[in-house]
Write a structure and sequence with these properties.
It comes from Rhodanobacter aciditrophus. This is DUF1272 domain-containing protein. This protein has 82 residues and is mostly loops. The protein has a domain of 55 residues. 13% of the residues lie in helices and 10% in strands. The protein has 2 helices and 3 strands; from the N terminus they run ββαβα. The protein has a 3-stranded antiparallel sheet.
């Protein structure tokens, strides 16, 4: 089951479970739409994989399967890809 991490790993923006601005790679690294497009150019800086929209878990399913509360932030943020 996806962790649904609570923030962007680059800029630490909040990304609640119902956010349509959250993007993930196959390892669940999580980034906001702005960092995904403007900084990372659609590539995960950790694994090199592509970033896709994170699914939204319906609110009634969050009761028994809550989103993660553990924030993950890259030290120094994400370097801009050229």
């Amino acid at each position: 089951m996806l962790e649904l991490r609570p923030n962007c790993e680059c800029c630490d923006k909040d990304l609640p479970p119902d956010s349509n601005e959250a993007f993930i790679c196959t390892f669940e690294c999580t980034f906001c739409a702005t960092c995904k497009s403007d900084v990372l150019k659609d590539i995960c800086p950790n694994c090199g994989g592509n970033l896709v929209p994170r699914p939204i878990r319906p609110a009634d399913k969050l009761v028994n399967n809550p989103a993660s509360t553990q924030r993950v932030v890259k030290a120094g943020g994400c370097a801009k890809h050229h």
